């Protein structure tokens, strides 16, 4: 159970770590800040220890030191009552043991039976210090309280004021006052609350661990004889060929060599719709193959896949302290000693001043001592933050730490890159305007597609793709096809000389009339790029191309505005093109800043930051300077960019803009749950303290309130995990 937070870790630089040795341990008994505080205090007393890094979710401790070996380190850890299991630098933590063992369940059941029976006998009139009652109380304490008393002794020996020490003092004080039934109830209720809390915290641990368990442990590897054998993925090397049968998960990152299929990547990107894959396309470990047999070539081995990097990022994120957690930690370091001193004063001063007997005031002091444990208060923040991080990861939103999860709700302005973020990032044919009235749009498109059929230019490919969608007719070859660099393309078809390209080519190859100039100017004013189609020097048609908005872009921007965010579009395109796109997305013209170079985007974000917290959404590469300047950097489509995953504060694993409003909502919900937990944890303590001063409190009521508050804040924090995943997402 959590109580006093660990002392703040000293700032450690890379220079401090230079020349140190790193040892990694799995600490089976390290579940919460209580154990972290004990370990941190004990290990920092050890000469040669430079830095400590704690991963409470996975119970892993990294020690950077300048010692000849780790014998002294393991001895120091053992001195805290915990054991250290050495781990390799990149080894995963051991398979988790059950949160509560079967033997512990039985011991707690028998302890509870003995404690309740002792309390019933006392209520029935038996003397609280009588042999039957004392025997039952001792049985309850031996069965369910020895771990607490042992940890209390370790805390006392280490001069650490924590929950186990306070609870041990309360139990011993009750025994000294002859309150044997209450001592039994106190130790049993506390042990029961720790057991239930362990079960609840296991859910948060499992939510994080589930990420790394999405990929299978074995793969069908092709041998030198061409046969496939199922082997552990650890034995698969780069460039190996694997077979992925229908219905199975992709074991490692790679690319398709042979076959076609649809894959469900929802667990990684949050995108519910299956993604079609063909030879040359990328495959992500953990995605589910549909109905096609695939052969793939491995590009990332075990421990280095996108899935592994996601899991590592989430694990690192949950170990970072969020602002609210840091505040609670500082508060707890003042609150607990203050309440302990108040409890001591309450127990001693009134009887010394003649306001009643020692027995009653000592008892009230013990009750207040139990109330002094800020268990629920301290544990509420890490559980809530971890639940929020896990809920985001299940939606394909990777948040690098609780700091960023909390900051998102504080954003006042969101700057969004245009190309590739709000738009598809590739041109598409949006209109065909015929200048020659005898030519239909379909005929003009067919002629243009014939000319562009062999070109790799993005505009040419957009024209050919539009022809394939609209008509699907075969494209006959073009005679004397010539590429005109920087201008376009020319060729002969059915005895006529055709040209397709920009306005400069049109003016070189033919005559441009004032009417055609006016039509072109109107299309360009809408932000379109034009391809001019000519036959024998006469302009036949104007083909307008433009980047197209993402399907959900307009609705997403509207949702963000409803959430109170000011939106700004940053673009390197011409201002007319950017404003035309903004109009299609429902953004006012004044929210557009264009044309901007990377330095201009950086300056724009800096100016926006002067008015309040600003977030920048981009591709994580071209917009890197501006994203680095923003308070929150959000990368789109990080599943396709390792750089985005590593540089952004928050990464949207799929190209799904709809996750942005979901991210804002999750951040605000997390803040609400944190507030509820703080009010609940402190409120219950205030109520019990008031009842105690009024003479209505009791030790078991104080423990029940403390344990109940801890359980309630844990369960309340875990509500964030109930955030629904996208339809079609699979948890494996």
Give a short synopsis of this structure.
It is built from 26 helices and 26 strands.
Describe this structure in words.
The chain has 732 residues and is α+β, with helices and mostly antiparallel strands. The protein folds into five domains: 14-87, Alpha-Beta Plaits, CATH 3.30.70; 102-207 and 315-386 and 671-721, no CATH class; 218-304, Calcium-transporting ATPase, cytoplasmic transduction domain A; 393-423 and 549-666, 3-Layer(aba) Sandwich (Rossmann fold); 424-548, Calcium-transporting ATPase, cytoplasmic domain N (3-Layer(aba) Sandwich). The protein is 49% helix and 19% strand. The protein has 26 helices and 26 strands. The strands form five sheets. Strands 14-26-25-24-15-22-23 form a seven-stranded mixed beta sheet, sandwiched between helices. A six-stranded antiparallel beta sheet has the order 6-5-7-13-8-11, with no helix packed on it. A six-stranded antiparallel beta sheet has the order 16-21-20-19-18-17, with helices on both faces. β20 (529-535) and β21 form a beta hairpin. α5 packs parallel to α8 and α16 packs across α17 (458-470). Residues 1-7 and 724-732 have low confidence and may be disordered.
- Give Rg in angstroms: 34 Å
Strand order of the largest sheet: 14-26-25-24-15-22-23
Domain count, please report it: 5
State which percent range the strand residues make up. Answer: 15-25%
- Mean pLDDT, to the nearest integer, reads 80
Q: In whole angstroms, how far apart are the ends? A: 31 Å
Low-confidence segments, given as residue ranges, are 1-7, 724-732
Biggest sheet features: 7 strands, mixed
Q: What's the number of helices?
A: 26
Number of strands: 26
Structural class: alpha+beta
Q: Given the C-alpha coordinates, what overall shape results? A: elongated
């Amino acid at each position: 159970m959590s109580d006093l937070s660990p002392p703040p870790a000293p700032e450690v630089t890379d220079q401090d770590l230079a020349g140190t040795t790193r040892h990694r341990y799995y600490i089976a008994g390290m579940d919460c800040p209580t154990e972290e505080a004990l370990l941190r205090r004990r290990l920092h007393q050890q000469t040669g220890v430079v830095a400590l890094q704690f991963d409470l979710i996975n119970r892993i401790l990294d020690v950077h030191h300048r010692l000849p070996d780790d014998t002294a380190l393991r001895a120091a850890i053992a001195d805290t009552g915990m054991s250290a299991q050495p781990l390799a630098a990149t080894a995963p933590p051991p398979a988790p043991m059950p949160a509560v063992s079967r033997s512990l369940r039985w011991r707690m059941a028998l302890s509870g039976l003995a404690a309740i029976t002792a309390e019933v006998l006392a209520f029935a009139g038996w003397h609280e210090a009588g042999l039957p009652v004392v025997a039952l109380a001792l049985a309850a304490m031996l069965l369910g309280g020895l771990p607490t008393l042992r940890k209390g002794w370790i805390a006392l020996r280490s001069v650490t004021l924590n929950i186990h020490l306070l609870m041990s003092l309360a139990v011993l004080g009750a025994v000294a006052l002859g309150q044997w039934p209450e001592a039994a109830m106190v130790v049993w209720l506390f042990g029961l609350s720790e057991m239930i809390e362990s079960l609840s915290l296991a859910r948060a641990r499992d939510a994080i661990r589930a990420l790394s368990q999405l990929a299978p442990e074995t793969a069908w590897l092709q041998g030198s004889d061409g046969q496939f054998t199922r082997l552990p993925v650890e034995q698969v090397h780069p460039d190996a060929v694997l077979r992925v049968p229908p219905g199975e998960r992709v074991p490692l990152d790679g690319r398709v060599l042979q076959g076609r299929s649809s894959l469900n990547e929802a667990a990684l990107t949050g995108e519910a719709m299956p993604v079609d894959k063909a030879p040359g396309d990328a495959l992500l470990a953990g995605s589910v193959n549909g109905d096609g047999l695939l052969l793939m070539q491995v590009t990332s081995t075990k421990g280095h896949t996108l899935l592994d990097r996601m899991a590592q990022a989430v694990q690192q994120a949950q170990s970072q302290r969020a602002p609210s957690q840091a505040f609670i930690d500082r508060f707890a370091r003042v609150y607990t000693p203050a309440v302990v001193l108040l409890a001591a004063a309450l127990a001693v001063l009134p009887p010394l001043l003649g306001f009643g007997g020692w027995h009653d005031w000592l008892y009230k002091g013990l009750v207040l001592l139990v109330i002094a444990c800020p268990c629920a208060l301290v544990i509420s923040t890490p559980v809530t933050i971890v639940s929020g991080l896990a809920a985001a990861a299940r939606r394909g939103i990777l948040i690098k730490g609780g700091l960023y999860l909390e900051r998102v709700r504080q954003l006042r302005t969101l700057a969004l890159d245009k190309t590739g973020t709000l738009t598809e990032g590739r041109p598409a044919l949006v209109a065909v305007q015929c200048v020659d009235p005898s030519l239909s749009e379909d005929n003009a498109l067919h002629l243009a597609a014939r000319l562009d059929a062999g070109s790799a230019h993005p505009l040419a490919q957009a024209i050919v793709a539009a022809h394939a969608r609209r008509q699907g007719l075969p494209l006959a070859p073009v005679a004397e096809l010539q590429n005109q660099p920087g201008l376009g393309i020319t060729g002969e078809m059915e005895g006529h000389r055709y040209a397709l390209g920009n306005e400069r080519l049109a003016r070189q190859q033919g005559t441009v009339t004032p009417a055609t100039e006016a039509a072109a100017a109107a299309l360009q004013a809408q932000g379109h790029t034009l391809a001019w189609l000519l036959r024998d020097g006469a302009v036949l048609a104007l083909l307008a191309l433009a980047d197209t908005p993402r399907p959900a872009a307009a609705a997403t921007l509207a949702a963000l505005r409803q959430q109170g965010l000011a939106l700004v579009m940053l673009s390197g395109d011409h201002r007319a093109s950017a404003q035309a796109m903004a109009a299609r997305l429902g953004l006012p013209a004044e929210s557009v800043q264009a044309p901007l170079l990377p330095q201009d985007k950086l300056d724009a974000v800096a100016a926006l930051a002067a008015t309040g917290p600003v977030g920048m959404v981009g591709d994580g590469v071209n917009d890197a300077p501006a994203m680095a300047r923003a308070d929150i950097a959000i990368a789109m489509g990080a599943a396709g960019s390792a750089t985005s995953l590593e540089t952004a504060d928050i990464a949207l694993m799929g190209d799904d803009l709809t996750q942005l409003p979901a991210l804002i909502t999750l951040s605000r919900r997390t803040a609400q749950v944190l507030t509820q937990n703080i009010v609940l944890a402190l409120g219950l303590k205030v109520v019990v303290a008031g009842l105690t001063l009024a003479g209505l409190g009791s030790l078991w009521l104080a423990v029940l309130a403390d344990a109940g508050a801890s359980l309630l804040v844990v369960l309340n924090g875990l509500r964030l995990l109930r955030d629904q995943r996208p339809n079609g997402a699979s948890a494996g």
